[in-house]
Amino acid sequence: MTTSLDEIKELLLILNKSMEKMNEKLDIICNNNNKLTEEVSSECKKMSSHIDFVESVYDSMKYPINYICGTINSISNNNAICNEDV
Length: 86
What we know:
Blueprint: H1 5-75
């Protein structure tokens, strides 16, 4: 099986075009991945600030709520209405 130089050249050109197309598709995938990463990061920051807010509200309210629960529990003949394990 002999292959002429022109046939080899043609095959190389076809391979080169295929590689260029694959590189273009890979660039598109990478750009989309970068955009997704930025969006996820932004949403994670929002969720983190929300969690911090909820924790700060809980920390400031847990003792007054426990006091109210303790008062209700003592009035109700020690039948535990609220959980005081905080």
